[in-house]
Amino acid sequence: xxxxxxxxxxxxxxxxxxxxxxxxxxxxxxxxxxxxxxxxxxxxxxxxxxxxxxxxxxxxxxxxxxxxxxxxxxxxxxxxxxxxxxxxxxxxxxxxxxxxxxxxxxxxxxxxxxxxxxxxxxxxxxxxxxxxxxxxxxxxxxxxxxxxxxxxxxxxxxxxxxxxxxxxxxxxxxxxxxxxxxxxxxxxxxxxxxxxxxxxxxxxxxxxxxxxxxxxxxxxxxxxxxxxxxxxxxxxxxxxxxxxxxxxxxxxxxxxxxxxxxxxxxxxxxxxxxxxxxxxxxxxxxxxxxxxxxxxxxxxxxxxxxxxxxxxxxx
Length: 315
Description:
The chain is mainly alpha-helical. It has one domain: Rhodopsin 7-helix transmembrane proteins (Rhopdopsin 7-helix transmembrane proteins, Up-down Bundle), CATH 1.20.1070.10. Helix content is 78%, strand content 3%. The protein is built from 12 helices and 3 strands; from the N terminus they run αβααβαααβαααααα. It has a 3-stranded mixed beta sheet with strand order 2-1-3. Helix 2 packs antiparallel against helix 3, helix 3 crosses helix 11 and helix 8 runs antiparallel to helix 9. The N terminus is likely disordered.
C-alpha cells in the first residue's frame, strides 16, 4: 500500500466511526467519584444561573446599557457555553461505567471548547481596551466606544475564534487513530488527543502551539498596554476619590484576567506542569469548570450597579 493510500485509509477509519475515545477523567480515584460529581454539579448550576442571570440583568436593566456591560454580557454568554461544552460530559463520566466518546463527538467538543476559550481570551482584551478609553479618554468615550464599534469588536472576536478553531481542528484531523484510545483527561483537549495518536503529532503540536502562543501573547499585550496607560493616568489624578473610583471599576476585570490567564500560563508555559497528568487535569478543571463560575461572582460582588440592578429586579 502506498503512503497516500495508507493515509487515505487512516483518515477514512478516523471518520467512519471505527475510532472511539475513552475519557479517563478521574477514574483512578473511584472513592472520589460521588464527591466530585456533587461538587461539579453544584459548580455547574451556579455557573448556569450566574452567567444567564448576568445576561438577563444586563438585558433588562437600562442603567447597564453601556459598552462595559455589553462586553460583560457576551463574556457571561461565552462562559455559559464553554462550561456547557465540557461539564455535562464530565458529570456523566463520574456516574457511568462507560466513559466512551465517539470520534465525531470528541472533535466537536474540541472545536467548541477552542472557540469559546479563544473568544474569552480576546473578549478580556476588548474589555481592557474599553477600560483604557473610559479612564484615559473619558471625553471621547461615547464616540470611540459607540454601539457600532462595540458590535464590530465583539463580531471580530467571535469570527477570529471560529477561524482559529477550524485551524486547530484541521490539524487534529491530520492525526491518525487506531481502535480504542484512552484519553488521560476529562475533556478532548489537544495534548491528550495527540498523546494517543498512531501517527507523529509533531506538526500538529507545533502549529497549534504557534497559533495558541500568538493568541496568548497578542491578547496579553493589549491588556498590559491598556493597564499601563490606565495606571499612569490614575496616578496623575489629584483627587483620591477619583483614583479610588478608577481602580474600583478596573478591579473586577483585572481579577478575572489574572485568574484566566494565570491558569492558561500555568498549564501551557510551566514545564513542570506537563510532567504530571494529575496537575494538567486539575489545571484544566480550573479554567474550564471553575472560572466560568467565578466570573459572574467577581463582577456582581464587586459592582455596585449590578448589585442595585439585581435588588430592583428582585423587588
